[in-house]
Amino acid sequence: MKTRTLTALVAATTAAALLAACSGGTEAGSGGGSRTLTLASVDQGSVEDVVKAFETANPGVKVRYTTSGADQYQQQIRTQLSSGTAPDVMSVWPGNGNPGATYVLAKPGYLRDLSDQPWAARMPDAIKSVAQYQGKTYNAIFGQNGIGAVYNQQAVAKAGLTPPDTWTKLLAFCRAAKAKGTPAFALGIQDNWVTQLVLYALVATTVYGPDRDFDKKMRAGQATFAQSPWTTALDKYLTMRKTGCFQQNPLGTNYEASQQLAATGRTLGIIQGNWVIALLKQKNPQGTFTLKALPATDTPSQTLVPAAAGAGYGINAKAKNPQLALKFLNFVMSPKGMNLFVKKQGGLPSLPDTGFVVDPSLTELSQFIRTNRTVPFMDQRWPDAKVQQTMLSGLQEIFSGQSTPQKLLKEMDTDYKAGS
């Protein structure tokens, strides 16, 4: 979510060009020939360990990889795929919500069909549905993620406060935190993909709490964004802003800076996906961070959490080393690779029976998933990437005073209908 999108950079034709292509990203690996795999990933801070483990398990194999942020990646992925300069393996999002998503890349034939791989049939139905296009699997989704309020427990304790479980308590929490000189939540919406996260956390309860079939009604033309509780969720988002729930100048704060605020206790937390926990721990190894549901109602039992398949990996249909690419994906989807990934990210595995021990920071998220109190990330069920792009840029415009909630929701309705 600045160019109206979200995701990771793809590489150039050769290994050398691949490394040169990633300005501002992380580069690693060496070697050439058929024992070299090229990889572009948005899993900054976690893919590194998986690559090392894969290379150790396959002596002589080298992985040349780049990592970059969501915005940068999504700006380039389609261009590099269409020009034949994409790497063997690349990050791919579930469903249809952004330019790097499964449907968007599989429809023009950019991705290899993975339906014949042993793990494909084992994916839970909810995850399988967003890993497939026209009944074929194209995305190796290794983890599940959730969105909520991630609290710096030491900072919260120092402030003498308690994470809230109702909407009224949330606003009181924000007011108390502001009065103590430490804002409740860091918000880094200079990176426009971040704008959606607070909204999604609120929409889960306000829209899907009363109507789990809202997406079906949207597809059938029986509901719209502008004439639905999406208006309530946006109003609550802006109420949080007016109440002082966020630090000053969110539009001038990027994702990296927002992490720093939450990790060091200059805010009491951050509203993000569970993937941010690992990044916060890197910045503050002594810190303890816990994800809680963001309340949007005064009845805690009615609170829902956005939780869904996270980004996975796809194989370039024109990969220069397709067999090594398959070997890497199968390693990622093995218990060893999957558990290593999700532990490093602070997530949950997508497949059952991996022996994964849930980190205490995700106890509440795990409980919400087990008790069916979750809904998919909203964009995963939209007809194309344009709706999300409009939402992201529109939210930035609302924060800068250039748009209004009703104008944004009407624009999203227009794009939704055009893409249906």
How far apart lie the N and C ends? Answer: 21 Å
Strand elements, count: 14
In percent terms, what proportion of residues is strand? 5-15%
Look at the structure and name the CATH superfamily of the largest domain.
Answer: Periplasmic binding protein-like II
CATH fold topology of the largest domain: D-Maltodextrin-Binding Protein, domain 2
Output mean pLDDT.
89
* CATH architecture field of the largest domain: 3-Layer(aba) Sandwich
The tally of domains stands at 2
* Broad shape: globular
Rg over C-alpha atoms, rounded to the nearest angstrom: 21 Å
Described by strand count, sense and barrel closure, the largest sheet is:
7 strands, mixed
Low-pLDDT stretches: 1-32
Number of helices in the DSSP assignment:
17
Structural class: alpha/beta
Give the proportion of residues in helices: 40-55%
CATH class of the largest domain: Alpha Beta
Write a structural description.
This protein is an alpha/beta fold and 420 residues long. The chain has 2 domains: 15-141 and 310-350, D-Maltodextrin-Binding Protein, domain 2; 146-307 and 374-419, Periplasmic binding protein-like II (D-Maltodextrin-Binding Protein, domain 2), CATH 3.40.190. It has 17 helices and 14 strands. The strands form 3 sheets. Strands 7, 8, 9, 10, 11, 13 and 14 form a 7-stranded mixed β-sheet that branches. The protein has a 5-stranded mixed β-sheet with strand order 1-3-2-4-12, with helices on both faces. β5 (132-133) and β6 (136-137) form a beta hairpin. α2 runs antiparallel to α14 (335-345), α8 (195-206) crosses α10 (230-243) and α11 (255-263) crosses α12. Residues 1-32 have low confidence and may be disordered.
